[in-house]
Amino acid sequence: MKHKKIASILAITVLSLTVPFFSIPRAHAFDDNIQYAMAGFQTYSDPLFGTLPTAREGSTVTLTVIIDASDFGTGQQNVTVGLKPSWTTTWTNATNADTDSTLAITRNQVVSVTVSLALPTLTGAFANFNLQTHSWQARVWTGALNAPSTSFHDQSATTTFALYSNDQADGLAAREQANERISYLTPVLGFGFAPGQAKAASDLAQAQAERDLGNTNYAARNFAAARANYQNALNLANSAASALSGGDAATFTNVLLGGIGIFLLGVGVFIAGFGGFWYALRRPKMKVA
Prior knowledge:
eight-stranded mixed beta sheet; 289 residues
């Protein structure tokens, strides 16, 4: 049983290395050996909705369910796996674990089932779906062979997410990158004078202003303007990094590592100086004959 649990953990781990995903908790502890994970989402700190998973309009998301059947009863279990978003009452089922094509599982098997769901584009009845949050739930049923079942074996918790327009998705991706660069460049600029520091400081201040203006426009649901602001913030933050590197083609990583190097050098000098001072206090006194 331990080996099978390790296998299910490894399956989730491999999934996490290939695509952005997050685990979904179960709503009820019917079966501790069933794990849920969703791929195709990015988690952002959204100025409107807070921190939550998000997906781009028209994209496809994938539910992966790892079933460790070590606690299933004897005999064959006929399993259906489905995913349902909040805007419909219809379940989207896995092709190999559907109501007319159930998945046969016997005790002690470990199986992986995937369900793909195409998200709508923001047109027609879905035009304003990006102005509110939505949710989904996953479920595992057991029942008769190749037949619908109303008896579910396990289900995930209801999970909230946001459906983004292209402007929202691109804008918040740029905002996240800009925030990352701003947070790293700010202490680097505090290390002292360096060539290009004045321009870097100016660019960084403008980057922060553009990011803040983007937050204002985003909160006002002007996502196109917010996207432009966030991209400007990212460009200015990159310009600040370039100024610190002398305006050459050095990457942001080089600037970051250079700042860390200066910091570590300062720490080393401090420790060396403190060590020398401490040694001077504690060294044995020379006796005068």
